[in-house]
């Protein structure tokens, strides 16, 4: 019989450290992830406290570093890849992100609505202070 052409080659769509037979590689991948996470954290602190960067660009730089940090954590520590065996993990992650986004957006919507409907008007505040 002919070899299966749909078999994946070793290392395809495998997260760093996800190979079960290589303990040293597993530890090395965790250490690389830890080093990259610490480097991004230190860079974030540096970007927030330095005057080298343009002031209004600091929040954008911090957001970019935060997204990179999330990517490092997903790949090196949670072993999320694009492989077919990770479909459930990716779907669970996407569902969690959806739920968090709905809770945050809904909370902001409710707080904005309460602020506009329950805060007394400035005329009422002035009238109350005069009496």
Automatic annotation (TrEMBL):
Belongs to the cytochrome c oxidase bacterial subunit 4 family. The chain crosses the membrane at residues 29-48, 60-78, 90-112. One of its GO terms (molecular function) is cytochrome bo3 ubiquinol oxidase activity. One of its GO terms (cellular component) is plasma membrane. It is found in: Cell membrane. This is Cytochrome bo(3) ubiquinol oxidase subunit 4. It comes from the Bacteria. It comes from Aliidongia dinghuensis. It is a multi-pass membrane protein. Heterooctamer of two A chains, two B chains, two C chains and two D chains. Keywords: Cell membrane, Electron transport, Membrane, Oxidoreductase, Transmembrane, Transmembrane helix, Transport. InterPro entries: Cyt_c_oxidase_su4_prok (IPR005171), Cyt_o_ubiqinol_oxidase_su4 (IPR014210), Cytochrome_c_oxidase_bac_sub4 (IPR050968). Cytochrome bo(3) ubiquinol terminal oxidase is the component of the aerobic respiratory chain of E.coli that predominates when cells are grown at high aeration. Has proton pump activity across the membrane in addition to electron transfer, pumping 2 protons/electron. The gene is cyoD. PANTHER family: CYTOCHROME BO(3) UBIQUINOL OXIDASE SUBUNIT 4 (PTHR36835:SF1). GO terms for biological process: aerobic electron transport chain; electron transport coupled proton transport.
């Amino acid at each position: 019989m002919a070899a299966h052409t749909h078999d994946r080659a070793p290392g395809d769509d495998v997260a760093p450290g996800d190979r079960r037979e290589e303990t040293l590689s597993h530890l090395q991948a965790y250490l690389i992830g830890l080093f990259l996470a610490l480097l991004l954290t230190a860079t974030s602190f540096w970007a927030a406290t330095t005057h080298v960067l343009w002031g209004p660009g600091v929040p954008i730089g911090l957001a970019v570093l935060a997204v990179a940090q999330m990517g490092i954590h997903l790949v090196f520590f949670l072993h999320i890849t694009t492989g077919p065996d990770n479909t459930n993990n990716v779907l669970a992650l996407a569902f969690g992100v959806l739920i968090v986004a709905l809770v945050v957006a809904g909370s902001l919507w409710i707080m904005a609505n309460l602020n506009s409907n329950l805060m007394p008007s400035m005329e009422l505040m002035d009238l109350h202070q005069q009496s």
